[in-house]
Amino acid sequence: MGFSVTPLNPTFGAEVSGMDLRKPLAAAEIDAVVEAINRYAVLVFRHDTPLTDEQQLAFGRALGPLQKLKMIKMLQGGATRLATPELIDVSNLGPDGKIRPADDRSRKYNDGNLLWHTDVSFDDNRAVYSILSARVIPPVGADTEFADMRAAYDALPDERKVELEGLKAEHSVWYSRALGGLTDVSEEEKATRPPSQHLLVHSHPRSGRKALYLASHASHIVGWPREKGRALLDELTAYATQPQFVYAHKWQAGDVVMWDNLATMHRGTTFDNLQYPRDMRRVTTLEREMAV
Ligand code: OGA
Ligand code: MN
Predict the structure, then answer these.
(1) For 57-66, 183-192, 216-225, 251-260, which range has the lowest pLDDT when averaged over its residues?
(2) CA atoms of 250 and 8, how far apart (whole Å)
(3) pLDDT higher than threshold 60 for residue 73
(4) pTM of structure
(5) What ligand is nearest to the CA atom of residue 268?
C-alpha cells in the first residue's frame, strides 16, 4: 500500500497521503486508518476534487454505524438541503442552496459549533469518528481547531488527576445551543434530545490512554453545586485548549478531516458567513447502532 502518515503537530494530528477516499478502500487500508486515528486522533486527507456524498458515506460506513440526523429537519421547518439523514449539513446554506439569512434558526444552531466541543456528547450513544468533507470554502477564515484531550490530561498535576477521577458531567445540546444564541426552543424539540451523563476523565476504548471528556454541551458536574461545577468545567476547557494542545486546520476544497471525538475537542472559527458560501458535510460514526 503506497500511503504515508506524516505528523502535523508534536502530540497529535497527521496527514495521510497516498490514500484516495474517492475510491473504495481495501480492508487493510481501513485497518491502517483506524491504527493511525488511535495514535494521532486527527487525520487529514487531501484531494484535488471533493468527495461526492456517496464516497463520503462509503468511507464512514466502513468505520462504524452512522449517526442519522432527524432534528435539523424540524429546525428548518421540514426542508433539508441534503437528502440523506446520515449526511450532516455543517454549511451556511439553505435548502435552496443560497446563503441562509441572518435570522435563520439553523444558522444559530450551527453557530454553537464555534464553541469548543466534541460531537454528540449529549447522547448516551456518543460520536466516535467525525468525518468532515470540504466542498466549497470561503477565501479567508473558518479554520477548524482541534485540541488533544489525551495530552491535556497527561499534563495535569497528579493531585488534579486524583480529584477528577470518577466525576461525571451532564451534557445537553440545548445548553450549548443557548450559549450559541438559540434560545427559542420548544419542549417538543427539547424532548428529541434529552441530556446524558459521562465521566469527565475516561480511558480511551481503543488506545487505553486516559483523556479529558469535555464539551460546550457539558452544563454541570453531577452531584456538585452548579457554580462549583461550572467553574471546574470552564477552568478545564481553558486549560485543555491552550496553544500547546491545539492544531488549527486551514481548509482547502477537497480536504477530508477525520477526528476522534473520544480523544479531542474541536471548534469552528468565524468568517464572513453572510457573504461567502461554506459547504461542509459531515458523517459521524457512533459507539453503537442508533435505535430507531
Ligand atoms: C462539526 C463542526 C466545525 C467547522 O462538523 O462537527 O463542529 O469548522 N465543525 O465546520
Ligand atoms: Mn462538531
Answers:
(1) 183-192
(2) 12
(3) no
(4) 0.96
(5) 1
Q: Which three cell numbers stand for residue 272?
A: 464572513
* Phi and psi, residue 189, nearest 5°: -65, -45
Nearest alpha carbon, ligand 1 atom 2:
113
Determine which of 73-82, 91-100, 193-202, 255-264 has the lowest per-residue pLDDT on average.
73-82
Which H or E run contains 30? Answer: helix 27-40
In this structure, the residues whose C-beta lies within 6 A of any atom of ligand 1 are 90, 113, 119, 130, 132, 144, 266, 268, 280, 282
CATH architecture of 4-286: 4-Layer Sandwich (3.60)
- Site to probe by mutation for ligand 1, drawn from 130, 250, 251 as the one with most ligand atoms within 8 Å of Cβ, is 130
User: What residues pair up with 99 in beta bridges, in sequence order?
Assistant: 93
How many residues appear in the chain? 292
The answer to whether the Cα torsion of 137, 140, 141, 144 is positive or negative is: positive
